[in-house]
Design a protein that fits this description.
alpha+beta; six-stranded antiparallel sheet; three-stranded antiparallel sheet; 16 helices; 43% helix; elongated
Length: 418
Amino acid sequence: MNSEHTDLLERVIDQYIGSTDFNGLPVHPLVDTDSSVIPIVIDLVEAGYIDVVRSDGHPNPYIKAFPAEPIDIQVSKIKTHGLEGCLYPSNKVLLVRYVDEDQVGPYTLELKFGAPQLDFRTFDLRLLEWYRNDPRFYYEVDDIHGTIHQRPGSEGPDGRVLQDDLEYFQFGFSYNKDLDRAVAAFLRYLHDLPTEQQIHLAQYQLDGDFQLHPDFYRTQIIGDFPERVSIYDAFLEEKHIINDMCAKIGKPHLFRTQNTAYQRPQGFGILIRPTRKEYRDFSMLLDQLLSDDLNRDFFKGDIPIVETLTREDGSTINQSIGTITLLETWLHKYFTPQDKTLLDTLFTNIRFVRSARQKPAHKVDDNHFDQQYVKDQRELINKAFNAVRDIRMIFENNPKVRGYEIPDWLREGHVWTY
């Protein structure tokens, strides 16, 4: 290379490494002062030393969000549309220049070697477990993406953050072909973590072919609104709508709790560690939110809520009727579906959830680890959601709630079931 080529290449490298966010060198000042720079850029691109990143692939050319386009396409666009965007040193150049670099975190190093900032890495879900269980952190997740950040006042005596130096971490989820779930994080956000924390996270990194959750991709890559809502939030919203319908009918709420979408009880979400204990805890919570949450006051005056039992000695005792039986009796009395299997399916689903809760209650065994629990949980929440959805659809037949506006995403079934 002659001096002009070398000088421009060094400016591109210095800009990329010297900036705090691995930014590219803007081309407009170069072209405005010397249009002869364009042939030099083309030479460097064709030699594989630099890349031209425009705003037609990502709106911000000042970061290398995605892999650079093939060399022939870069050159063709320069010749057709002129020189636009920013210049970046190629991975080949950076690997030679910083081959002995070992003073930064592994994900910062990947960016230093020219990796795209929106490349993602996948991690075992166990990575999240410690932060979820530690009250010194806010742990917020909606099964599509989440954040972890330290609670104010939990700093150490010297004012530092906790021992692993984690102040804020943004992540999402990804899946392989078997729908095994993993944590996903962009290199850009991993780079923001302290070196020690990057090293800690690297211990949980997974290999294999993982794809980002579709809505994590939509919101973070495309910048669009989510396409669907998590089934856990949809379940809670269905219950909220049912209670609202009860009020319009003039009856007490069918469910005692008042959670709505995005207001989840603690622990109501995907399994972080697929163990028997986590699955047990979830199945118990789900049943508490379904059959245990049924409000006995709703049935008063419509059907008996207690039954009289006779003891062996001839004496009698009043015993409360179970909430599932109450709902079943009430629906059979006041609702006659065209499809006779509707109520059978509804209560099969409710009792499936109850059974999942009861099974471990009578057995003591070790805390077994098995990915099957992820699939079991998926089946469980789907049956619970189908049950409350069917109840809501039944209540819609009441003349007092006809015309009730169900959110479009719920009416049209825009719900993520995994």
